[in-house]
Every structure is written in C-alpha cells, then in structure tokens.
Input
Amino acid sequence: MRDETTTPGSGSKGRRRGWRRVGAVLLAVIGLWFFLLPGVTVLRCIFDPALNGPGVPKAALALHRSLAGRYEAWARERVAAGTAEHLSVSDISGTEWPLFGSVFYLRAVESLQAAWEKDPQLTREEPRVFARGAIEAATALVADPKHAAWVKKYWGERYLEEGNLFYRMLLISALTSHARLTQSGEHLALLRTQVESLAAEIDASPPGLLDDYPGQCYPTDVGGAIAAIRRADAVLGTDHRAFAERAVRGFEGARAGALGLAPYAADALTGTPRDDSRGCGNSWLTLSAPELWPDRAAAWYAAYEQHFWQDDWLAKGFREFPRGIDFCRSYHTAWRALREPTPRGTSRRVFRSLSPG
Output
C-alpha cells in the first residue's frame, strides 16, 4: 500500500537538495582555500615587522623551506639530463640563468643561516641543515662541466684559465657558499685556483676590466667578481684587500659614465664606456660595492638614487634608464657600436645592450 505522505518526485528532489549541499560545501572549501586563506597570508606578510625593517620575514623562511626539496630535485634532474651541453649560446635563459639562479639560492641560504645563528628561534632547524640537499645540488650544477658548454664555445678548453669573467665569478661564488655552509673542503682546490688566477688576470688588465665573452665587457660584473674573490678570502685564508683597492680603477675617472656611475658596457682593453649607466647594472654593483669600497659605494648609491629613483602615483622604484635621458639614447649608442669594427661577439653584446632589462 502506497504511503500517502510520499508524493511523486519527492525522492529526486531530496537527492537534488543533497547534491546542492555538497556543491555548496565544495564551493566554500574552494573559496576558503583559494581566496580567503591567501588574503589572510598576504595580510600577515604586510604586517610582519621584518618586511619593512630588520630581520627575516616569516614568509621568506616558509618559502625557503618549501623550496629546498624542489630546488634539489630540479638541479639534480637538470645535471643528470645533460641537456645544457647542447644549448645554443643565444639561449640566455637556458645557459646563464640556471647558474645565476643557483648562486643566488646559495647566497640566500647563507643569509638565512647567518640570521638563524643570531636568533635560533627563527626556525626549528638550521637552514643549512634542512637545505643541505639543495646546497649540494645547486653547487654541483654550477660546477658541472656540461653546464659550462656555452662558455667553452666562446673560450675553448681554457675557459677556466683566461677571460670568461662571468662564469668564473659564478663558480667562485658557489664554491665559497658551499664551503661556508657545509664546512667541507671538497671544492677548495678548485676554488683556490680560480680565485688566484682571476684576481691575477684582473690585476694585470690596465683598466682593471675583463670580458664576460669575447668583446663583451660589463663592468658591474667585474665588481661582482672582485666581491666574490674577497668573500672567498674568509674560506681560503687569503687576503686580497690590496688587490681590491687597485681594482677600483675600473670604475673611476674616464671609466665611469657621465653620471659618475659604472657604465652598462665598456671596452675591456681601454676601459672606454660603450653605453650609459643602467639600472640593472647599478643594482647589481651596489649589492657588492659596500663590502669592497664603503665610501665610494655610499657616493655611488646616492648618485644612483638621485638619477634613477622614481616615486609617483603609480609606482616607486629604480628605473632602468636615468630620468631626463631619452629612452632611445641607449639604442642609438648600440647602433653606432654595431657599425664600428669590433671583436668577435659584437652582435651579442649590442643586442644585450638593446634589451630593456
């Protein structure tokens, strides 16, 4: 006998209401996870005193811990794959960036480790401990001969013995970070050889400059290399202070740009600037100059701030080109360089100069 309280279709309506509730719960979870929680995280970051003051922001520590395992896996896979050996020299993102990124990663671990040593309450575990695998993998990537294939195409088998400043700077920096973080002497012999040979070569250069690639000299990279050599002193027990004082000649007088700042590009043989000063180069140099030449670094930063800092209703920060200088001026300079007879590597140097960043 049919229940009089049950009407046709009531079961299907109940099921639909059930599915609606399930859908509502799913939407609530999605909204919470993708919209509300990120907003809370952003607010916590904004009001973290370390974000605009001394100390390490909590977000930086959390990000670093989450990145360690992924960076290790990526670096090991890239070295094992061997694809770097077959990349074109024009593939900047595939050749330079993995090494540059690994060096910056290692320097970040050093900074976090130094902060932890001052305040062990920052994290439960030392950064050099929970990032040990990534430290080893990043160092192995920078030192991997296959990842040097692109510079070998420029410098040949003597790529560790002459010129090649950019790559050797990265190698010195990575090996120094590894030694400081792991207290291991695994790479000290190679590190010592590179430090001494690169310092001697810069010292022997009349203008104090060397090429990254044949015919391509970027003075702010030279500044980074000098800083890398000085940082290695603490690991090797060497002393390159006198060398660093002599090396400042590459950034002063006629070798400086019109604003008294390092030019973006220069002739390594004569020291003659080939381009105006650029924001990317100044930001790079002002990271290392205080360690080398504190008084000069303060003057350079003041000039950088005076000519490149922009603060308006839309954004604030350092510009790539100085205020009051035609944006096309750098393009005009590069075009003149393109028309002049210059050494091998000219076109690549020019087109890097033409790049907005």
Observations:
- The chain has a mean pLDDT of 85.
- Residues 305 and 314 are 18 Å apart (CA to CA).
- The chain has 14 helices and two strands.
